[in-house]
Automatic annotation (TrEMBL):
Annotated family: Belongs to the methylmalonyl-CoA epimerase family.
Full protein name: Methylmalonyl-CoA epimerase
Keywords, sorted A to Z: Coiled coil, Isomerase, Metal-binding
CDD domains, A to Z: MMCE
One annotated GO molecular function: methylmalonyl-CoA epimerase activity
Gene: mce
Source organism superkingdom: Bacteria
Residue ranges of every copy of the VOC domain listed in the record: 4-135
Entry-linked InterPro entries: Glyas_Bleomycin-R_OHBP_Dase (IPR029068), MeMalonyl-CoA_epimerase (IPR017515), MMCE/EMCE_epimerase (IPR051785), VOC_core (IPR037523)
Top EC class of this enzyme: isomerase
Record SUPFAM superfamilies: Glyoxalase/Bleomycin resistance protein/Dihydroxybiphenyl dioxygenase (SSF54593)
Amino acid sequence: MEKTLDHIGVAVRNIEDTIHFYENVLGATLIDRYRSDAKGVESEIAIMDVEGDRTELLAPTNNDTSPIARFIRQKGKGVHHIAYRVDDLDAALEELEQQGIRVLEDSLRVNKHGRRLIYLNPADTEGTIIEYCDYPELK
């Protein structure tokens, strides 16, 4: 199955400063900014576009339960995940199962932009958090 880079998620402590950096140093455009209080997300998200390439800035909104807060405590700020777009998330999940690659079942969701996503288990990806996603509305 074909996979293309969709975006890179970056864990940040101060979303305002980071947006400022992306806009003024990298020439990025702020595409969207929103807050998700969904369990397992609990983050403010800013989607930045740099000449067609997307970066999601992720700032925790709850320092006790946000997975982004936990990530920053354990590894510091920086690249949190790499997202790959697949044509069909369901077919990609079957392919992963056949390959013995586990996913984090509780991470399966649809975001506000209609993107279906799930995270692969980092134990099976050499420690890198990898997201698979598709956009069913674009089919």
